[in-house]
């Protein structure tokens, strides 16, 4: 059960430090685990970049298609976390366990839809205006990821449950194990092992390695749920999978569908950049892939803080300690934004040697380098809006964030990026044509999102405080 939550020490700075001390034990395992997840794509990017520019371009388009498909469904399944967190905080572990069973049904249902989208990726290929050779590479890569998708969504349910009950280290251990398995397997499949008669597969090898690693990780999670005595209080074992419970599934979907849609809007606004930039040729999209991977790497820290803060807020709401819930949520936003300022600035200063770690192709370096000029502000805004959205989700508020995301990230970010990059009206300065135009518009959209979500969170907490007075 969650530990008692004593009153914080006096003073604003002391209260902020106290919140940081409580968030940190939940955030750092999530951070390490998410880094290992990101390392899946980072390893793929580095390996494929050294294999061929054509495979790297196919990886960019294929990754965008997979992420766009996966993240919306992931956001729905992740609605399990605030629901379980509140039940756990209220001292109802058996009810929390029943919610996990229902999340498994949701994950399986969305897996069927997602696999169909990945096996028939014609809309993504049309948007990217992929060449026949590139389209063949993308189709093979996505077919392998279609095999990985059910395991990924089932593991998402396991992750959401464990984070909600303050057990993120169990997730981290499995994620690190999957990465340790994937790295040598990806290397062997991308470049081939002639001594073993294994041919070079390029980007397809990355997809196969991901599918194998994800299923092994998910099977290991199932074994832990069955055997670890920690889970006994949740009554997960001994009765098989519960039959679908319409009220429980409905409660998860009411929170999960707008949450998943908001995540889909956010991520698709970013991933569709890669699809549109692919129209400009292999070199621009390869440069964008490197910049996008670096932004994703930076994002792991605020995502971890968002998970930690959201978990504590949900638990405090369940325990009816609303002042602590309000304080922890707002402090999470401050901590996430502050760390983003430091990390974004550091990457900007070190951008040249960092890009050199990815590729020695001077044309790709030249394409990637200007994009990193936008990374610092992009990351600060991204960190702020992410923590604010997670805290709102802990209060079971998801519809307003969806509206804000759709307006700012699709309208300003993606729509504005298209107008700048392709200049259909002939009025955009040449410096903003191509990939830089998308990055400028996406950064502007994220800044608007961060400002709007932070203001809405502040208003929500203020109204809740007044209602409790």
Automatic annotation (TrEMBL):
Record field: transmembrane: 63-88, 100-120, 140-161, 173-196, 202-225, 255-278, 290-309, 330-350, 362-381, 402-422, 437-458
Chief place where the protein resides: membrane
Signal peptide feature range: none
Subcellular compartments: Cell inner membrane
Keyword Nucleotide-binding applies: no
Membrane topology qualifier: Multi-pass membrane protein
Keywords from the UniProt entry: Antiport, Cell membrane, Ion transport, Membrane, Transmembrane, Transmembrane helix, Transport
Protein name, UniProt field: Multidrug-efflux transporter
């Amino acid at each position: 059960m969650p530990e008692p939550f004593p009153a914080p020490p006096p003073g604003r700075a002391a209260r902020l430090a106290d919140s940081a001390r409580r968030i940190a034990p939940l955030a750092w395992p999530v951070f390490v685990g998410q880094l290992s997840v990101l390392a899946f794509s980072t390893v793929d990017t580095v390996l494929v970049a050294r294999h061929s520019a054509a495979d790297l371009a196919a990886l960019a388009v294929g990754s965008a298609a997979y992420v766009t498909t996966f993240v919306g469904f992931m956001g729905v399944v992740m609605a399990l976390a605030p629901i379980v967190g509140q039940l756990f905080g209220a001292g109802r572990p058996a009810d929390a366990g029943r919610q996990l069973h229902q999340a498994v049904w949701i994950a399986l249902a969305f897996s069927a839809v997602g696999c169909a989208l990945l096996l028939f990726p014609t809309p993504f290929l049309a948007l990217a205006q992929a060449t026949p050779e590139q389209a063949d590479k993308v189709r093979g890569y996505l077919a392998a990821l279609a095999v990985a998708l059910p395991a990924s969504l089932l593991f998402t349910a396991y992750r959401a449950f464990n984070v909600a009950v303050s057990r993120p280290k169990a997730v981290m251990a499995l994620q690190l194990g999957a990465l340790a398995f994937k790295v040598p397997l990806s290397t062997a499949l991308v470049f081939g092992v002639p001594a073993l008669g294994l041919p070079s597969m390029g980007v397809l090898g990355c997809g196969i390695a991901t599918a194998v690693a994800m299923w092994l990780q998910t099977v290991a999670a199932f074994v832990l749920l069955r055997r670890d005595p920690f889970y006994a209080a949740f009554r997960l074992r001994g009765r098989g999978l519960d039959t679908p419970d319409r009220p429980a599934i409905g409660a998860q979907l009411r929170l999960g569908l707008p949450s998943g849609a908001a995540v889909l809007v956010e991520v698709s606004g970013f991933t569709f950049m890669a699809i549109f930039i692919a129209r400009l040729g292999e070199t621009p999209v390869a440069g964008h892939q490197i910049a996008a991977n670096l932004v994703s790497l930076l994002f792991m820290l605020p995502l971890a803080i968002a998970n930690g803060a959201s978990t504590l807020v949900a638990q405090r709401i369940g325990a009816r300690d609303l002042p602590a819930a309000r304080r922890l949520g707002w402090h999470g936003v401050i901590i996430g934004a502050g760390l983003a300022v430091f990390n974004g600035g550091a990457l900007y200063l070190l951008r040249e040697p960092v890009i050199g770690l990815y590729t020695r192709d001077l044309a790709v370096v030249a394409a990637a380098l200007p994009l990193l000029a936008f990374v610092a502000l992009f990351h600060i805004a991204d960190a702020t809006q992410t923590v604010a959205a997670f805290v709102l989700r802990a209060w079971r508020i998801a519809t307003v964030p969806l509206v804000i995301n759709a307006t700012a990230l699709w309208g300003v970010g993606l729509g504005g990026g298209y107008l700048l990059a392709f200049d259909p009206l002939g009025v955009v300065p040449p410096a903003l044509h191509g990939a830089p135009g998308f990055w400028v518009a996406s950064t502007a959209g994220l800044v608007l999102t961060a400002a709007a979500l932070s203001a809405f969170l502040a208003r929500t907490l203020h109204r809740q405080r007044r209602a409790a007075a």
